[in-house]
From TrEMBL:
Gene3D superfamilies: Methyltransferase, alpha-helical capping domain, Vaccinia Virus protein VP39. One of its GO terms (molecular function) is methyltransferase activity. Residues 1-22 are annotated as: Disordered. GO terms for biological process: methylation. It comes from the Eukaryota. InterPro entries: MeTrfase_7, MeTrfase_capping, SAM-dependent_MTases_sf. Pfam families: Methyltransf_7. This is S-adenosylmethionine-dependent methyltransferase. The keyword Flavoprotein does not apply.
Length: 360
């Protein structure tokens, strides 16, 4: 059986194309989400209700290989300790358990080799897709996920069906495709979010919190005008050039689609409301600051995308190192020659605070 389309992890290790060496832009927003985490814990977490168990369980879903996950976890635990101190509780009586989740192919070896030596928590890896159950019922107090929920559980079936109006021939993504393709991707996102929220509703204690940070397009903005989508349009044009050159077959291009969707904050809000098991306590968009986090050169952008997509391209397109070098060298040049950077502000990073609010 073919594995899920989103089961291709970030590049592991610590080499030049690894995720750990090409994810500094995300660190900016993890730091900025720290304020939301502090406010979430201070205002909404009933720590006294959980202190009797002496254990506080945290999960980072889509953790990849670090180091960003360690910064995020540290922010959560510091906020909990501050809440304890504000209530006159001894935070030392709490034992913190942190679960690092990602797909089975994730480089957990690199992740655990990089664990901070002075950490004050027990660490465990939980392999598997977050589009399904991962933990026992009502055990998690705080769930965090950053830059992961744009990955879909799979490519919409319609875009690969030659008899469907949504067949995405000659393209690898949806932003510049016809309306049927865009709708198929949007529907897949909505379906996946329902599965994600239902699974977390089983795992998070009543009153427990989730902070989810993800790249979004502005409400009402055309998909084709979003920076990340414009960037991937350039990747698509590079693959088309390789077809014209004879390096890549047209058939292989037609069969390849990216399993990602960049939703709007409104789409996320609607998904939570449809599900009904969590309440939105706060939603923050870092629109005006987004451009600062995006790398400034084509080479840096190409390196970031290569860290994310190399595994997918190797398996689905059978690309070797030489073809990957050719593709991403061309990708970098096209970025430098294009006007794509002016669209950086058409994307935003949205952080949403959710509270487990029903027993359903």
């Amino acid at each position: 059986m073919e594995r899920p389309s989103n089961a291709y992890p970030m590049n592991g290790g610590e080499g030049p194309h690894s995720y750990s060496r090409n994810s500094s832009g995300q660190r900016i927003f993890i730091d900025r989400a720290c304020k939301l985490i502090q406010e979430a814990v201070a205002e909404h977490l009933d720590i006294e209700a959980y202190s009797s168990s002496r254990a506080f369980l945290v999960a980072d879903l889509g953790c990849s290989v670090g180091p960003n996950t360690f910064y995020a976890v540290s922010n959560v635990l510091q906020a909990v300790e501050q809440k304890c101190h504000s209530l006159g509780l001894d935070s030392q009586i709490l034992e913190f358990q942190v679960f690092f989740n990602d797909h089975v192919g994730n480089d957990f070896n690199t992740l655990f080799r990089s664990l901070p030596p002075d950490r004050r928590y027990h660490a465990a890896g939980v392999p598997g897709s977050f589009y399904g159950r991962l933990f026992p019922k009502s055990c998690l107090h705080f769930v965090y996920s950053s830059f992961a929920l744009h990955w879909l559980s799979g490519i919409p079936k319609e875009v690969q069906d030659k008899s469907s109006p949504a067949w995405n021939k000659g393209r690898i993504f949806y932003p510049s495709a016809n309306e049927e393709v865009i709708n198929a991707y949007a529907a897949q996102f909505a379906k996946d979010m329902e599965v994600f929220l239902c699974a977390r509703a089983q795992e998070v204690v009543l009153g427990g919190l989730m902070v989810l940070s993800f790249i979004t397009r502005l409400d009402g903005a055309p998909h084709s005008q979003v920076f990340v989508n414009r960037s991937l349009d350039l990747l698509e044009s590079c693959l088309v050039d390789m077809v014209k050159k004879g390096t890549l077959s047209e058939e292989r291009l037609d069969e390849f689609n990216l399993p990602m969707y960049y939703a709007s904050p409104q789409e996320m809000k609607e998904a939570v409301e449809r599900n009904g098991r969590f309440s939105i306590k706060k939603m923050v968009e870092l629109v005006e600051e987004s451009a600062e986090a995006y790398p400034l050169t084509g080479k840096m952008i190409a390196s970031t995308w290569r860290a994310a997509l190399e595994g997918l391209l190797k398996e689905k397109m059978q690309f070797g190192e030489e073809m990957l070098d050719e593709l991403f060298d061309l990708f970098a040049r096209k970025h430098d020659e294009s006007s794509v950077f002016k669209f950086a502000r058409e994307s935003s990073i949205t952080s949403v605070l959710l509270e487990r609010s029903t027993t359903n």
